[in-house]
Structures
1.
Amino acid sequence: MNRHRFFARAALIAVAALLIISQSCAQNLEAHLGFDRNEYPGDEAMATLRKQFAFVGYWLSPPPREKTTGWAGKREKLAAQGYGFVLLYAGRPGSSLKSTQAGAMAGEVDARKAVELARKEGFAEGWTIFLDIEEGGRFDDAGHAYFRAWAEGLGRGHYRPGFYCSGIAVNEDGGSKIISADDIRAHLGSIDASYWVFNDACPPSPGCVNLKEAPPPSKSGVAYAAVWQISRSPKETVAKNCSGYAKDKSCYAAVDTARKWFLDLDVANSANPSAPK
């Protein structure tokens, strides 16, 4: 074969290989848009919202400050519509954990209950359940005992632990900063867990906007995040520079032209973030 033809063909093969690798990486980085809200908006609303969203937050337990969950019994209907899921279980406030022993006991109890509810709702072993942690900043020893017991308890039940927590850097004394997700992850050590972080400050959040291309969770400021909550309703103080919110300071889907169902916007690496990997 002519040497010039050989090198030309080799160069074309190399370029083609690079294009394939590039496309594969782009697919792996593809982000999906979803939403969550404490109240189930109704079957009609979910059918409408499916036109815009790939996945939805699904409360196994009652949401914070509620006694029941309207999401119970809705898995089959939503799965039939094509929704993916992010499973949620309400965590306990730090003020209720008076000691490391109390934290560990509470984590075990909540993990057992979460596993029971997941099975009851038809989510088989291997699904990720996110513990909803509303507080931010650095956690005390009782809090970390609670998180570890939660993670270990879910593991024993053959479910994967997850944490919904702050991805916002908080100032500490001495000029240092801490992100709650980093604090939890560091204390869990080798325990494998998934992280759903909220960071609705702009930037990095794009705000309450109709996204044609969703940014990946790694852009949240927490590189290892699997899910990123980019907006919350009502609008939080940290989101003061964000656009797209309605006059009532809530975020609404683009398909909800009548603005009936306020919600939180999320992006994820998967269209079904809690599903077994």
Note: Residues 34-268 form a domain with the TIM Barrel fold (CATH 3.20.20.80).
2.
Amino acid sequence: MVWAEALTATASGETVITRDDTKPDRPVIRAEFRLTPQSISARVRTRELIAVVDPGGAKGDAGFLIAAWGECSLLVSLARPAEARDAAKEMTVDGLSGLWWESGHKTRMQLYERKDGGLEWEICLDSQPPSNRFSFQIRAEELLFCYQGKLTPEEVAEGAIRPDSVIGSYAAYHATRRHDWSIVRGKDTVREQYGTGKAFHIYRPKAHDANGRMVWCDLQMDTALTITVPHDFLQTADYPVTIDPTFGYASAGGTQTVPGTAKANINDAHTHVAGSGETITSFTVYASSGSGTQSLGLAAYTMDNGSPKLPVTRLAAAATVSLTGGTPTWYTTSTVSQSLASGTGYCVALGDGNANTNIYYDSYGSTARSNNTTAALPTTWSNNGTGSVVYSMYATYTVGSGATTPSRRRRTASASYVIEQKGSEPDDTVQTLADTYSALDGTMAICSQRVNGHCQQ
């Protein structure tokens, strides 16, 4: 079964249900969810997180695709309707639309947008299943899946807080892109907004029965997404039982802590080797205040060529943000103008905080941060150990006319899954979900390697 049409232009929070108008009963054949705002201009590339659900049919596979920036995506294979595609039906939850279908004996698949902007995927069981493990084949492109385990004793001592829904979850990051860019060519400016590079978050699933009993489940991702429900819960549950993995739209880290000493993001994906004509114009951080108004500093540092690469010299005086509330949000500094030397590596650091300053991070699985010896952002960095987390902060760069444009990955148009190489026009070929799997086969080994070796702890 083919994707019904090209990607529809919809606003954030809007759902488009597509029906087959060639049949008398106009069966539902696809749902498209816009989870974040769409770019208002072709010259502005934002995350544009979107989910497309295809129930499949006799000639195709069921599944859903969640994609960001039109460049990175996760495709999850599901059981198609048990009898015919006509079994897929529209549903409404809290005023928002979705799809559901019978996917096997006493089992239903339900997918719908949440009010908080995430995508809810529910596996509904009417009776005890033969196994407590539910496994779904996946294909991923240009994504790193970073496992969020239990906090270490050191993290707890530092004051870190990780919600139960984040413990055992996965943060999904763009494989290579970070920061925001304004590329100036004469009177024309193109903006690319990657921020932290976080595409979405797959939260720890939970299961609940008809009487409201709830239990946390285990989630594992490699070449399949596998959910394991505690066996004793399924044996004693009052059916129906619902298992509900949630795909969150958050682009910030899921763990809160206090800065302590100054911190710098130093892994290769979060650092930057400057090209010619590049200038930092601002810094952005996700933070909150624990009491009153607090201040937090942000700065760029040159990096050495060691293993790991470490910060060396501060580029300019730190820019500051004032944190004014207890609810975490994105804070951006006033405009700065800090010219970068072509060929030099740079990282972003935060500091000058205190015990009432809250910052946020994700576990990354490999060496990703450097601690300074003091809370201040010094002229010369003094490394006092490294860690495997990335903080939710980034820089905004301007690339001037005649400068080298940052390298780009190929773009993927989510719904029809058209591959577009740099400089080419999109192909309007409509492909089947099976074609989508085939198109991703070349990158799955890389993704599998990253899942198993790069991001998990």
Note: Residues 193 and 229 are 38 Å apart (CA to CA).
3.
Amino acid sequence: MPTDTAPSKQDLLVALRASHDEVLTLVRGLSPEQLEEGRYENGWNGRQILAHLASIEWTYPRLIDIARTPPEPPRSDPPTREMRGGNDAYNDRQVAKRSHLPVAELLAEFERNRAVTIAAVESADDELFTRQIRSAGGVVGPLAVVFHQVAVMHVRGHAREIGTSAARAAVENPSSVSLAMLHELYDYHWWANRRLWEVTAALSDASIRRDLGSHFSLPTLKGMLVHMFGVEANWLSRWNGEPSPRPVTESDFADLRALRQAWDDLETRQRAFIDAIRPEDLHHQIEFTSMAFPRPDGRPYRLPLSALLMHLPNHATHHRSELATMLTIVSGSPPDTGMVSYQLRKTNQLD
């Protein structure tokens, strides 16, 4: 993130809470077996990535301590603190120390440490966030920028990796994805989308068009919703073996009412597709090209339908986290969209 777009202290607090919620939502949406699958950074699986997030979180408040420490003359470099043996060795040790812990305890540790991180930011003077520092990992800049990079973007990056655990399992073994799991996942997905939609729809036109910064995937609430709609329409066409529709933009929808009408129709077609899937269909290979990962020769990618069905709600979880952060900036914290909230309401344990 460029220093001229450094987040404010309030922005940091909103992003810290949103990335916390993103981790919890993703992890609670996966089974322990799914978390043991996949290999990512350092050869870790999903559970080990969660162990890393839980173990590294306590170091983030130390960034504030670093900012309070003036450089020692004649040193001109921003102050920092090194980890014994280097970052990789430290991370490996901490993950190994937690190899016996169940997912629930790792989540509890992450939650405790994130609460400490948030409290440290809340109590720090605003002036501290303008001071130049260097993190143990070598990120240099004003404290606000460094903090956002390591405590928000780093965590979100790992959350995405955890979220791909189920998708990776679906690629390697499409039979691991059951129709019942897909129906439950998409019911949750549609519920969570509408929950944030209702909050956004109650805002003024100026609020949904307000530029909230380039650190979001799309800078406006309307733009984020249009992007989510467009991605879902594109994947439905791919699943049906149809050409991808023309990319949509904000200008395609005069207001949110027009977007809602188009999205209602899309959701109806998605439900019909999901309802019609048979177990053998999950193995069907879908060919597609990607704007995110274009091949120079234009050759399409191929993945089983099961993997692509798992991808879409995972993609939306990331953007719902961004939406929640944006809504918090514009109008206050929106209602929870976590899997636990969904299940409690589904079973009539919450209103």
Note: Strands lie at 132-134, 140-142, 285-288, 301-304.
4.
Amino acid sequence: MEPNQTIQVKFVGNYPIAWEPPAPGESQASSQLSDLPSEMFDSQPTVSDSGFPSTNEELKQQFVAFVEERMRGARGDSDPEAEFCDPETDKRNMLKGYHALLAIVHDPTSTLVATNTTRLKLFMELNRIKFLESAFDALCRNYLSDIDKLGKLWLEKSMQDPAHAGRRKPDREAQEIVPGWYNKMCTLTGGTFLVEAAHIIDVRVTKKLGADKNAHSIWNLLKVFWPLEDLRALTISGDEQRNILPLRVDAHRFWDSHQFALRPLEHPADPTHRLYLQMVWLKDITTEGNLASSPWDHRKNGTITDFRRGNHDNDTFPAIRHGDVFELVTADKAMRPLPNPHFLRLRYAAQKLLAGMMAAGALKDIFRGPPPRGIEGPVRDEAHMPGDWEVLIEAAQQGGVLSPEAAEQWRCYILEEAYQEHQKQLEEYTEWRAKNRILPKGKEVDDEGQGS
């Protein structure tokens, strides 16, 4: 195909994760001012209240200390190397939430109320909270609740197996058509061998509550942590072709297993024809890594290479590195539109949230101590494994944190916990129906309250 008949992809350069594309006439150097702390450019109001931090950085440090103290409380001890006093799932749930929250706090692109002096003081005034620790406590409980909801919404697998069962016709057609727009080349590597049509918002996400309702729910939850704009709706139905990104099979596998995320950046002058994607390797990022630098070991963990660059004569091509930026350009936005930036932003934000709890240090903390023993768990057909825990157990096993035997013991334990919780909810629902005299269709209630 001619270049104007396909979506063109080119390597732009390697930049920090807070990089923003320069506006027309602006140099690359000036566009990187966003990497620097906002205190260097904005005059932060000094809060006169005694003990209240005067800068965002000071506030962030105090909030981090608060979260770390809560983590020690969740463990039941003050020694990170000690074994858990209690294997209860709710305590480990809190730990995975805290690890995710710490990674978000250190992310230079996050926008938390708890780390912004102006917004936090307003929050305290609106909620009549007098003490900083009380504000941290209220926000922390909300953050952990939202993180738990997001993990379940994003990672929960469909009850149908395989995942593609019952896939809608427009989605199937999009998977067949869109790779041709890229001349059947992988967006990242430029390779043409084993290229797949990868979903930006995963099929299992779209089946949980329905594609559009679920995506919009996730978007609204992620707004708590990142600067996402207000949307009345986030519609995938009818926009299936913009939910596809052609990737080579190895890149697709890495993306779906949360080894890397793609940070989307719209072109400042021509967003309908041009779009930037920045590589963010996530595996083994520590809390202090800020998602701004990554210790990814390309030799140890595997890698993907850019076949557009390098030397074809001796088959030497560069690995795609943390911070590499690619530009996607389409000449026809109607016939060959670029991927939907809202879909990309949603996936990127969700994967950043998961990165904190899937880091090696977090997994060692979450699964610290011996696994629960003597639990066979319910029959798999009678219970549904929570998707967030399944992903964490798989990551812990692949990373050597859990042996295959320990991983299976944890699966049995989590499955049993989920089954018991489900049974409890069913009983409470049955009691509620009986209390409110709600009977199945076709039955009536007589004067004495008996069903007939």
Note: The chain is about 40% helix and 10% strand.
